[in-house]
## 1
Amino acid sequence: MAILVTGGTGYIGSHTIVELLDEGYDVVIVDNLSNSKIEVLQRIKEITKKDFKFYEVDILCKEALEEVFKTNSIEAVIHFAGLKAVGESVAKPLMYYNNNIVGTLVLCEVMDKYNVKKLVFSSSATVYKMSDYSLTEDSELGATNPYGNTKLMIEQILRDIYMSDNSWGITLLRYFNPVGAHESGLIGEDAVGTPNNLMPYITQVAVGKRRELSIFGSDYNTHDGTGIRDYIHVVDLAKGHLKALNKTLNENQIEVYNLGTGKGYSVLDVVHKFTKSTGIDIPYTICNRRPGDVSVCYADSSKARRDLGWEFEKGLEDMCRDSWKWQMLNPLGYE
Ligand code: NAD
Ligand code: UD1
């Protein structure tokens, strides 16, 4: 029996596959390579010394997806495949609703047809209305852009599927800010174009691809005026998926978990820690706030600790060091 990983050549998917293979799971990957490179497969093999199946398939293509279910014995699905750039989703809402929502509908239809009813889904902290600083799974929901709406809508669709058929087991994981890379430096986040997120921008400044970091606002109500987020090492996040998978395989229910560290760091905290752990100065300028940003956002992850037995192990220094190692060894990403 194998675990099907959709979006498995992407950033979080590739790190989760390493953990799955290390734990002895059989893995089948489906990805259309719209935001990832085929080279990642070799890198995963190099790290794990294990083999797995890969299908270049778009999950919107039902026939191709059915072929995967017909030719493999799938036990459960970890569903990463989706588009994730907030700004792009505002510009191209139809593309986002189609890819993320229709893609998930097609996947669930095929799962249902082949009687595979165990699913772990990549949701996001972006589904929260951000009316509290420390967010529990019960905090108020409300997305502010099409990307976030797709996550909220998919969560609702999955709840409705479970309500209609209690033999499903579904886990919704709301990630906070994944950063870092595998300690080997062989896999990491291959940001295409100008990075939107903080850590890839910092590493591109460090490697000389960008001149300086723009810090979006220094007048927030925080200890140094810059925005605070809950950064989580991608390997800790990947391990959270294994804990979630284990529970999903054994229980027929729908549950939601935050995956964050519960620790908030400001933009300047990250810049200073990066310099401390790598010895590289990051030049920066203070700019206006980025529209749509909140001042502070971090997770209350006590539910994941309690129910999944998951605990993060890596701190901000590990996140900075591993992000840098990946960037330094792969200045052009997987190219
Ligand atoms: P990623 O872009 O690196 O990986 C997603 C993968 O899905 C890519 O390899 C892409 O080619 C593939 N894909 C997209 N549409 C597809 C389709 N229709 N058919 C087949 N494959 C398709 O992104 P990531 O950072 O690894 O994120 C994985 C998931 O986690 C996404 O659903 C994302 O929304 C969610 N998430 C990410 C973050 C983050 O900060 N990285 C935060 C919260 C939630
Ligand atoms: C972004 C996404 C969010 C997604 C999350 C995790 C937006 C509006 N939100 O949020 O949907 O779930 O990533 O992937 O894109 N910063 C700078 N300079 C930069 C980049 C960022 O100062 O060049 C600051 C931001 O203002 C913020 C912090 O760094 O205070 C973190 O930013 P980022 O990495 O983009 O994450 P989020 O804002 O949490």
## 2
Amino acid sequence: MSNKQEIEEQQKFIEKVKEYTKNKNYKYFILTMGCQLNENDSEKICGMLEKMLFQKTEKYEEADIVLFNTCCVRENAEDKLFGKLGEIKKIKEQRGTIVAVGGCMMQEQHIVEKIKKSYPFCDIIFGTHTLHKLPEDIYNVLKEKKKIKDIIDIDGEVYEGLPIKRNDNIKASVTIMYGCNNFCSYCIVPYVRGRERSRNASDIIKEIKELSKEGYKEVTLLGQNVNSYKGNSEDLEYPNVKNFADLLMEIEKIDGIERIRFISPHPKDFTDDVIDVISKSNKICKIIHLPLQAGNNEVLKNMNRKYTKEQYLALVEKMKKKIPNIVFSTDIIVGFPGETDEQFEDTLDVVRKVKFEQVYMFIYSRRVGTRADKMENQIPEEIKHKRFNKLKELVESQISENNKKYIGTIQKILVEGSSKTNENMLTGRTETNKVVNFKGDKELINKIILIKITEDCQWYLKGEI
Ligand code: SAH
Ligand code: SF4
Ligand code: F3S
């Protein structure tokens, strides 16, 4: 069956499920753990569920189906799932709720075994490559009362045409490529998401044009390694989109979309043509997420990152030269096997030099099946935590320093809504992703306006129109 036929087949299952769900007011609860790619997958899961007449609820106690879309990039994500499954057991016994567990963790065999053994009440276990088959899985549970395990261990495919129910109506995420070929030695993602595969440019552009029509102003292009995006020369509409730079240029042309972001590019694949496109663009936000992971060359080599500290810094310098006012955010792992205090200093050195707008900091977490997990020189937890705190301190001091630079400046803000903590205030973000709160009329929501920054409140800024 072709992928297109496969999706048509699932449409039929949606119709069949509707025979069970119509007039019943069925509700679903979904918990998404993990990255924005998983969030985007969950939006598709919600899209399918709503087509099957399930309505969203924020309370799992009243749901007829509870879904967990899991992550396994670090251990704490696993602990969280097992905690939640423990909670759900009682509800399942009382109400017969359908329990479905999917996502990255389900691509790990030892986890699936654990769920079958310790949480046998789960009805559906689905992986990252079989998400589109949820209607069929749900149908089989409703009709046959079967337990379903729908996981395949393949390199993965691209399925177009799934319904989608988005979380936000101002900003949207669009996955442009799936999977990863990089095999950084600490990382589980390539094992659970399969090899890299790109969507056709025509499908991506069609999706973004629709978003624009619906009023969205900002899109974030998603992928584990967006700058290894590859176009398809057989794509009828966009055969000339060969790479990420070409794709960005096409997206730039879409009217109505005013901001373009992307995560994550890999430093080793950051080519000059992409830098050129960013420098000429009016829409690509001048903040680039450039995952560093570590600043020491030996550690980087053991991580299999394929760049050195010097190359990373040279790339940052090159971009700063070609793109006025560009700033950076990053990901850093502390306590990779074998990392010495001295080597960790190199990471701090890069942080001092680049002065990131934002740093996502992680304590190294052993992942079964990865190369780093087999390394003998694992770092004791205590040292990892010490390094984490040291990094955190540096980052926090830099962020407050950075925030001060905003005071008195005029920033373009995309207004996202009312502030969560104060109904009288509006909230939005700068191009560099800083949250800004200010007084204003609700009619400004979903508009880009100019705000003068007046105050630094550590985690956000205050300003006035
Ligand atoms: N593809 C992206 C992000 C992948 S996962 C990239 O290459 O940047 C998001 C982040 O989780 C990574 O950037 C890394 O900093 C962190 N991470 C991945 N595996 C980890 C592990 N085993 N322990 C701790 N952090 C990890
Ligand atoms: Fe993981 Fe590295 Fe791939 Fe990112 S590039 S998903 S860190 S293997
Ligand atoms: Fe986690 Fe899967 Fe994303 S492992 S970080 S949810 S790709």
